[in-house]
């Protein structure tokens, strides 16, 4: 199966200020020569300890941050160097869902404004907003309410609807269910799986919860101090890990 999203030798470093004004230097990289493939219609799970570089990798894969070295390719096009017209086409095809369902939504906007924000004004804009809400199990009468009126699980559904509104091919989820209770997690995860089957979506799903990764992932990459130390089919990585970091994560001793 051909990859839809690829990272090739991606390196990204911290920038620290020197003692002298306006002078900066790079310290040890946050990410070091990361290479991975996301196949169309599948889920790549990324696991690692806190501080291993998972969130930074999400932002680079989404195109929000450019790598210092290496490439991120969507359908073979480099996110950083492709012509402007191609980047404009790619931008709505890759969407993110963030960890915090409370902080990710502007409390001053209605749900209608939040979900519809990525869309240009168009005659069918409102219909697409309501359709996106319906797809995540929210009713039309919720569109004119504000985020404070919703639970954490409902807010994350709003965030998912916002990600869906551009009809993306790839969704990158950075700890998207970690702030939810277990029963709500299950509802949101099943919703994501249903949408993947319905639309052929490809996911990059970051989580520290191995049960979540096991439930969703076709392939897994293990990140440790900015490097991928193990990767492969989910069943192999989880059932027969070869790296000490992976074994420690599975034993919950990392």
UniProtKB/TrEMBL annotation:
SUPFAM superfamilies xref list: P-loop containing nucleoside triphosphate hydrolases (SSF52540)
A matching Pfam family = ABC_tran
Give UniProt keywords alphabetically.
Answer: ATP-binding, Nucleotide-binding, Transport
Q: Name one GO molecular function term.
A: ATP binding
Tagged with keyword Nucleotide-binding? yes
Domain ABC transporter span(s) in chain numbering:
5-250
Query: Can you tell which superkingdom this protein's organism belongs to?
Result: Bacteria
Signal sequence bounds: none
Family matches, as PROSITE patterns: ABC_TRANSPORTER_1, ABC_TRANSPORTER_2
Family membership: Belongs to the ABC transporter superfamily.
Protein's UniProt name: ABC transporter ATP-binding protein
